[in-house]
Amino acid sequence: MDKRLEAFGRLLTIMDELREQCPWDKKQTNESLRHLTIEETYELSDAILEGDDDEIKKELGDLFLHLVFYAKIGDEKGKFDVTDVLNSVCEKLIYRHPHIYSDVKVKDEDEVKQNWEELKLKEGDNKSVLGGVPNSMPSLVKAIRMQDKAAQVGFDWPSKDDVWEKVDEELKEFKEAEGAEKEEEFGDLIFSLVNYARWLKINPDDALEKTNKKFKYRFEAIENFAKNNGKKMQDMSLTEMDEIWEIAKHK
Q: How many whole angstroms separate alpha carbon 200 and alpha carbon 26?
């Protein structure tokens, strides 16, 4: 027997046993699991950014458990089971890859993505290219996905220089804005920067998270210096903190 199928079958058996015998697992619903699934997804994201393969493996296991859990609840409700879930995604992948499973010809990755979006529009209730972008998605990630989807159907700037001109325009408008308009123009500025990052093949969410990690490391270096020297950060001068920041920056 294929070891992959054996391992997946083992997980399904354990899920059945937990749902039947464990007081905590018996009480869970889609709604109670939702925030835990989001947390597990962010933990996987952290492991990926850290490049920690052992942690990636662990977090993938946690996510597999959650997916099987939702399928088990669906089965109990008589709505769907794990077989329905897996067959559904298999059928979708076959349908959206006609260049593999049919006689459609594509010349590159961009054409594959364009075909994907066009086929997706023909499915279900999505009447808009942007209809599949979840409303609850974090704003920065949502901006990336919307711009990428729009570009796949031809709604895009001719070149990255044009995009940078838009960034300059939005920056000027932000500087000149007053009152409530300041927030709106700031949003426009961020959106244009996200677009420019897309042209440079930079994921702005990943880039920002790496900067967050750098800031955290350097700020904690200042905190540790203060603690080790019996000081409070509030009593340190900005110059003193900047010196420690620079030391941490070059470590």
A: 48
Which of 63, 87, 111 terminates a domain? The answer is 87
Residue 218 has pLDDT above 90, yes or no: yes
> Which of 87, 111, 128 marks a domain boundary?
87
Q: What is the pTM of this model?
A: 0.69
* Of the candidates 86, 151, 144, the residue with the CA atom closest to the CA atom of residue 116: 151
Considering the domain boundaries, does residue 37 fall inside one? yes
DSSP one-letter string for 213-239: HHHHHHHHHHHHHHHHTT--GGGS-HH
Show the tokens assigned to 77. Answer: 């409700």
- Residue 175's nearest CA partner among 151, 167, 218 is 167
Query: Would you say residue 238 lies in a domain?
Result: yes
pLDDT per position as a tens digit, 129-162: 888 888 888 999 999 999 998 998 889 999 999 9
Structure tokens at 228: 């080790």
